[in-house]
Amino acid sequence: MQYTIGVLLAGIIFCLSAHAGNVTERKLSDYSTEDPVLRLEGKRADKTLSIPLAGRQQVVASQITLSLVSSAALIAKRSILNVRFNNATIGQIQFDPQRTRSTSTVRVPAELWRPGFNNLTLAVSQHYANQCVDGNAPELWSEIHLHDSILSIETEPATAALSLRALSGWFAPGIGGQREVNIVTPRESNSLITQQTLPLIAQALALRNQYVPLQVTHTSVTPQTPLPALPGEAQWNDTLTQQYYNSSWYTQFSATQPLHVLAGTKEDLAPYLSGATQAKITGAYIGVEATPEVTVNNQQLVAAGIRLVVSGRDSDEVRRAALTLALMDDELNPDADIVVQRTATEQPFSAVAAHVLRPDNTYSFAQMGQDNIVFRGEDSFTQQIALLLPADFYVPESASVRLNLDFGYGAALGPGSMMNILINDELVHGRPLDNVNGESYRRYQLTIPARHLQGGLNLLEFVVNMRAPLTGQPCDDVGGKHMVFQVRNTSTIDLPDAGNVATQPSLALFRDTGFPFARYQQSHPASVYLSSPELTGAGLTLLGKLAQTAGTVLPDLTLQAGIPKQLTDNAVVLATPETMPDDFLSHYEASLASTKQWPYRLQNELHNRIHKLTDNRRHDPLKISGVTNQQSSLGDMAVLLARKNPLAQSTGNLYLIAAQTPAQLTERMNDLVSLGLWGQLAGDFFSWEDSAQPLIAMQVAPQFELGEADNRLLSLRLWLSNNPWYWLLGLAFLIVLCTWLAVMLLKRRNQAVTEDW
Amino acid sequence: MNNTRPTKRWFLGYSGFFLLCLCVLGAVLAAPMDAFAQLVVAFTILAVIHFASNESTFFHQYRLYFRVLAVLLGLALTVRYILWRGFFTLNAVEWWSLAAAWVLYLAEVYASITHIISCIVNIYPLSRPERDLTGYTCAELPSVDVFVPTYNEDADILEVTLRAALQLHYPEHKLHIHLLDDGGTRQKQHQANALAARKARVRQQTLQALCRQLGVRYHTRDENVNAKAGNINSALPHTFSDLIVILDADHVPTADFLERTVPWLIDNEKVFLVQTPHFMANPDPVERNYFSAFTRMPSENDMFYGTIQKGLDFWNASFFCGSAAVLRRVHLERVNGLSGDSVTEDAETAYDLHAMGYESVYVNRPMVSGLAPETLDAFVTQRMRWAQGMTQILLLKKPYRGAGLNWAQRLGYLSSILFWLFPFARIIFLLMPLTYLLFDLQIYHASLQEILAYTVPHVIATYQLSTLLFGRTRWPLVSELYEILQCTFTLKALLKVFRNPRAPSFVVTPKGESLVREYISPLAGIFYGLIAVVILGLIVGLHKMVSEPLTRDLTVIVLLWNTFNLLLLFSVLSVLIEQRQVRGQARLPAHDEVTLQDPAGRAWVGSMLDLSLGGGKAKIYARQQSLPGQVKLIGWCRSLGRNVSIPCWVLFHDPVTGVVRFSFDRTSDAVWDDVVAYTMGDSRRWKSFQRRRTRPISYWYGMRHVLKVSFRPVLQHMAMQIKELWQQWVITKGK
């Protein structure tokens, strides 16, 4: 009995200790870009989901709960869902024709997890009879409802020596990665730190998070004097004081953000750093260090933590350190701190990621990071290749993209085997794979109008369908394992020369590429203007998101306090109605100052859209113009307006983001950068009040072209394209002039001919 | 008398201005713009052209402004199209496609250049006033030699021409008629072929007798050197008049020919040539076979003489057409008579004299009636000679360098010469769709939107300008028909010239042939082949359109192009059926008031319906009459200035309608002279006929018309070929 109780207690203690880690539950639909209902059809089918796990995380326990629906025609025992994790089978779920809807839980052994991407494969083998099963029979299906299927994972930080290499472990898109970060600066810091350095730090950390948003907060601190009162009878002594100042006493942080950033010059940071750390700051400094817990009388005064120190002897060195943080490859830094002596970047710095394809160049698929594409077996296959073009990619109609494909397919493909090539979901080429001996091509050339491509992300998609040959005999299926199709990564894409122009304002382009803040050719200074210092965190969060969108650091983006009369050409203004000057952009159709001004057009479109959605065919579209001025609040809503910037020296965009209070704006900013809402940015007027979906997204303001100011020919082309009537008038004038002169000459000639008649 | 007009200065002014216009328009048109904007602009311009073209057809003071505006706008679209094609559409992924694309482009450039030059040349057709000899004393009038060169024409044909020449209104002592017989030369009479030699001797005797009878001087020579030019040149030393009129053997002049031409030569001593139109009294094979369009549709001839020569005349570039012209002897002698380097000695001579600074005049009044070739074979033979001759001038004289010519004259000659290179372009336009449909060659690298923005406006503008400039004298698509008909044969002839520019020899156009039965021309074979290939292309194209959705846009466009070619080829089929021609002479409409009188003195008043040298048709006003078998036709003869009374045989009389058909009874030379004078001597009759059939029709009417007459010939050909095969089979079986 005592033994039994002892075992039970040990079990409970183990369980409790096991649950001491961080438990995360995620829907499987989070890892699929396709329909949340995964339908698997045919005799065999599978789908693989990639589940990222952040580095420095150790999985304690995990399980997957699958919500299944299967065809009632499937026979038991032979119809099975195999669940594989990193290619190891971790579960076999039999489909029961008597119970077509079911939920099954499969434990994922912790040892199968590895940092980075983990493959969860859901593979079915389905039969409706014991023999002669037609693989195309419609009753061979099963569904996995990914949005009801849950991955539960309990993780705990892995114990390893602190080093800068570990930064990518904290900030990573996988489970366990840090989603929030607090950047701490001394209040008395030089304003350049806030303006230039903090944006770089926010971008550097957000870039490590790749596509997962990073919420950034900012804390401005002052040296603490006197020391806080200790609990109970405890008194400060030298050891405790030293321990206190070595800790992260200046900030509060939670378990979800174990790492914070401390940024400032060596002098400014002196009250917050240990002497040893200060001694290391002999230049642009980046260091990561653990701060101790401070406990007095078993009461935690300061929690243990990890901080990233970005510092230098002056603000320039601090900026250089931040820039290095954004550019450096963590894997190359096994040390806990580095001092940057020199940073050499190309001049001017191209704010476009290395994987952006540049016009007038030829790229092999290998250069684009694509492996050989190999499809085997009988199935439909799809492989997408991302073609990331500059956001302001602009080509005339006559320009062409050339694809030189090296591809082939093996022998004995059956009828119906084919390859289709799509660009941005538009079919550009199709080919049956119908040579029984197989075929191999080198430099199979396709010329595609370049207008199929757009600025930003483009998808080149190979859709291949391979069907096994038919024997003509009943129940004599040929297995399709012999079938193979390959596209070699020596295939190339030849991009035409292109101008740099984009139609603005366009929140869709902003969403996909970060344009106009991420530009291909030139460096364009741009700023985020804050009407209140409380909005610094929101501004930094936005800057981090922009860097993620552009895929690279945007060093020319700065943070500015206040809203001056003259803004940078491209600018973001974060403001609340109270802090926004009343006359700020008041001549615009929409104004968000204390007195709100909404254009009728906005209201018209909203009105019309509602009628369209409700399929009200008797509704006449509302077309009235004007504005409504009203005294009202924004409530929980935030608004993002994109407009041609009237406060700029030359052409540019102004993005105005407003919410009722700074806190609400910060909260809405966090909503905005979430994957779901950011992906729905569109038009030039966007409002939202949660991260689920926008309230309104529509185009209100007239559009204009933003591009290369010094490319006269391109400017002329655009101007003429947008104003053919002016060109026509000019032409008409010329023609009339020519006509008049021609008639004069003809008349004189006629006079000369006829004068002696 | 002596004209010293400042021609050079204004020509240079116009040329400079034209170049400036091209530069400015080129720069404006090269302005980069997206296809949609180009589309908007192009169709706006088309609308303006349409408006301006319409306005220019009304008589008001701004008429010329609208005309020039339309021409400049249309040419602007053409230049824009060619620039766009050259800069943006000549990409190809493989060599064959690239070669095909370039070949097509070069054909288009050729077509555009000829179009542009043609528009410039014809922008201001000169209408000269009608002049006569009133006010000139007899002493002031120059003497005139009328040359009638002949080679193998019948004496009957020559007799009519000579009788008409003798009736010319001109002082008798200053008018000398000469028959230049190249069929009875010493060389011909002593040739190895005894039968032919005997024929030559008989011919000479016959013609000499005819000349004696009529009072015409007969000439022949030893050898047939340099064909027609040599024949005329051999007669020059034996004649002495100031002016020389050249009339082909079948070219019958009206009595007022010299009255209306000679004043231009008297007033300006620099004028070396007064050319008049060739009025064809019978239809050419296209006019006859193509839905019998002779009396309704303007002929190819009308376009040249009714519009182009007038346009050339404005620039002092109208040229000699071999007949129906008056030349000044002194100028002709400066170039040693007619030139003989090419087989078109007429144009070549005019070129040489223009280059020497002399001037030409074109009088647009039909005063010479000739015969068009009756059969397709003869027609093609004639056109091949013209094409070869003009190409010879291009290669030998190089008018683009134009030593002695001003820029406008160069353009004038280039316009006339380059036109004859059409077989290259026409063959390319026929076959090029097939390279895409049958061989998948990518000949046209453009999107549908670009085609709508550039190609379609260019094509429409070209037709608009053609209608504006030539609308009265050419129906839409008829030029294409003529070109397709000739292209394959003329191409071979042109290739010979390009291989050796001096190789071609003068081939006399056969005339006066009769067609006793309807038959399919022996030239039809090659068109059957072309139709078969084009239909194959159509079938493959339809399959391609269904089975290859990715290229459907382009396939549809090429299919339309191919179908257009097929329709034209079908239309050509209708021309290839040689219609029966019963009458010896073609009858032309007439409207004279006439009286038919029987020997008893009863008379019937009526009006003529048609008339020819052989007889005519009239309608008497009185109904239910009984006409005797022989009557006299009494009518006013303008050329003779009196009533003529011509004995006739009544062939048919309908008492209900009053229609009477009759043939002339040539009882004496005097009657024969009266018949010639009455039927052929009045130029007003030709003018009226010509005016009647030169009328503009809309493009859609022309297109509808082509569609309407395109399919029947296919069935006719099939029926006739099957009938032919059946007859052959019956004959073979019978044997």
Descriptive terms for the model:
heterodimer, A: 757 residues, alpha+beta, Jelly Rolls, Chitobiase, domain 2, six-stranded antiparallel sheet, 14 helices, 40 strands, B: 735 residues, Spore Coat Polysaccharide Biosynthesis Protein SpsA, Chain A, Thrombin, subunit H, 3 domains, seven-stranded mixed sheet, six-stranded antiparallel barrel, 24 helices, 54% helix, globular
Biggest interface goes to: A-B, 47 and 56 residues
Quaternary structure classification: heterodimer
Main beta sheet strand tally, sense and closure of chain A: 7 strands, mixed
Cross-sheet strand order for the largest sheet of chain B: 3-2-1-4-8-6-9
Instruction: Tell me the structural class of chain B.
Output: alpha+beta
Count of beta strands of chain B: 19
Which overall shape of chain B is indicated by the principal axes computed on the Cα atoms?
globular
* Average of per-residue pLDDT values of chain A: 85
Biggest beta-sheet profile of chain B: 7 strands, mixed
Low-confidence stretches of chain B: 1-11
Helicity level of chain B = 40-55%
User: Low-confidence spans of chain A: pLDDT under 50, at least 5 residues?
Assistant: 6-20
State the end-to-end CA separation of chain A: 141 Å
**Total helical elements of chain B:** 24
- Our count of helices of chain A gives 14
What does this 3D model show about the protein?
The complex is a heterodimer of chains A (757) and B (735). The N and C termini of chain A lie far apart (141 Å). In chain A, strands 32-31-33-37-36-38-39 form a seven-stranded mixed β-sheet, sandwiched between helices. In chain A, strands 1, 2, 4, 7, 9 and 10 form a six-stranded antiparallel β-sheet that branches. In chain A, strands 12-11-13-17-14-18 form a six-stranded mixed β-sheet. Chain A is globular. Chain A is α+β, with helices and mostly antiparallel strands. In chain A, strand 38 and strand 39 form a beta hairpin. Chain A folds into five domains: 23-157, Jelly Rolls; 164-227 and 236-340, Chitobiase/beta-hexosaminidase domain 2-like (Chitobiase, domain 2); 362-497, Jelly Rolls; 501-519 and 545-707, no CATH class; 727-757. In chain A, 22% of the residues lie in helices and 34% in strands. The longest helix of chain B has 27 residues, at 95-121. Chain B folds into three domains: 7-121 and 421-578, no CATH class; 138-372, Spore Coat Polysaccharide Biosynthesis Protein SpsA, Chain A; 588-692, predicted glycosyltransferase like domains (Thrombin, subunit H, Beta Barrel). Chain B is globular, with a radius of gyration of 28 Å. Chain B contains 24 helices and 19 strands. In chain B, strand 14 and strand 15 (603-611) form a beta hairpin. Helices cover 54% and strands 13% of the residues of chain B. Chain B is α+β, with helices and mostly antiparallel strands and 735 residues long. Chain B has a seven-stranded mixed β-sheet, sandwiched between helices.
